[in-house]
Amino acid sequence: MAKYFDVHPVDPQPRAIDQIVTLLRDDALIAYPTDSCYALGARIGSHSATQRIRDIRHLGDKHHFTLVCADFAQLGQLVKIDNAAFRAIKASTPGSYTFILPATAEVPRRLAHPKKKTVGVRIPDHAVTQAILRALGEPLLSSTLLLPGEDEPMTQGWEIKEALDHQVDAVVDSGDCGTEPTTVVDFSSGSAEVVRVGAGDPTRFE
């Protein structure tokens, strides 16, 4: 059964965050809130959790996982960013955007797109997510919690606990979450291309 954490959305309890991070370091898979919608998250180095995300969401090997970062310093270690992309991304973070960029050698090959060698990265504007990332000290491997056959992600922690009680190790609940995933902007070709319109305003990249 998944552990259930009721975390304050603005002032997360340090004890709860420490317990969540301890689970993550033991290769746990968690469901957690972000500034767009709920997501599945695990340590980048956890092979087993990565496969569990694929199994839960029925994902193929061409799926772009997202690496969720605490700040620009972490993000810059994972992807190659030219000056134009740097300025645009810096002005839009933290926020509800995922950026697709060429991966650096820091990203395990299994997480990058098999042909394009790209990966999605983001810096969320959410107090609980940021608290987890800071305590963990490394990015989270993440994927929107959208179950097969569903049109929208689940928004309630208790609902996720009921649905995925035996498939995730913990559910982090900090109140209602949105239903819109991030806006995805692909910079891998050298210029910005909005490939999915979501919670973030796409007009700044059009």
TrEMBL record:
GO MF annotation: an example: double-stranded RNA binding
A Pfam family: Sua5_yciO_yrdC
Stretches assigned to coiled coil: none
Domain YrdC-like: 14-200
Classification via NCBIfam families: L-threonylcarbamoyladenylate synthase (TIGR00057)
Protein name, entry field: Threonylcarbamoyl-AMP synthase
